[in-house]
Design brief:
- Two copies of one chain form a homodimer.
- The longest helix of chain A is centred in the C-terminal third of the chain and has 25 residues.
- In chain A, strands 1-2 form a two-stranded antiparallel ribbon.
- The first copy, chain A, is elongated and about 55 Å long.
- In chain A, α1 packs across α3 and α2 packs across α3.
- Chain A has five helices and two strands; from the N terminus they run αααββαα.
- At the A-B interface, α4 and α5 of A face α4 and α5 of B.
- The first copy, chain A, binds a DNA duplex through α1 and α3.
DNA sequence: TAAGTGTACTAATAGTAGTAATACAGTTGA
DNA sequence: TCAACTGTATTACTACTATTAGTACACTTA
């Protein structure tokens, strides 16, 4: 299900995160489907369970999965995932607006720039 | 002119960068005014010249100052500074838009969100 | 050309990120 | 209830990177 590339310079947990993101976004893993357990997957990949745990924690932080103690990790609903990402983006936008105002660029200026992008 | 806080966890060069940013943005340092030399300031603060050099390189990268080999570092014109920051922001906005489109959020949606911020 | 200036290279060190070993804690089903 | 599964927290080892410094080079100006 998940394949690691040990020659890849990227950290193992990051590779795991990206693989699962892909599987979820492409619909291979369906809503509420159970992910392999931390231990199983770690054994299968011959790495430490904590590395998988770190990957799952990150996936949860980004809204891709949810985790239930003692039961397992599960694919989050598409709605929740998108809602999560939307909030993240809105936060980023707010920070950007603050910075922009610091150099005398108003929200209107930003909207004007966005309009040109269309 | 510049004061360091050795108890501060932040790196020395970063403290120097922030101090100068403040001095420039508040107009204490005027356009084309010469900054203290790398060696002088280093001696005054009892740190290594390379640390000041690193701070100045960062300030130049962000458009706050410009540097002339053999002559010194000088405060950039306000216009250039703002232009520089504006381009940086616009780049960030473009990246944000791409991400937003990835989750089905259009430029119009972003504009709507911005409008509510006003 | 001396005395100032910025810059590049290298190295020592401290801090952090990645991974692992291990122990703790919740859930489930025979 | 308890064994066997599940996620989680704590700690520690290690490799990498960031920070700082030592030193040498290169340009500018009077």
């Amino acid at each position: 299900m998940i394949i690691l590339d040990l020659k890849d310079a990227r950290p193992l947990y990051e590779q795991v995160v990206d693989r699962f993101k892909h599987l979820i976004l492409c619909g291979v893993l369906q809503e509420d489907e159970k992910l392999p357990s931390v231990r199983n997957l770690a054994m299968e990949l011959s790495i430490n369970p904590n590395t998988i745990q770190k990957a799952f924690t990150e996936l949860e932080r980004e809204g891709f999965i949810y985790s239930v103690k003692g039961r397992g990790n599960f694919v989050a609903s598409n709605g929740i995932l998108i809602e999560h990402k939307k909030k993240e983006l809105e936060q980023q936008i707010e920070e950007l607006v603050k910075e922009a105002e610091g150099i005398g660029m108003s929200i209107e200026d930003i909207i004007e720039f966005l309009t040109k992008l269309k």
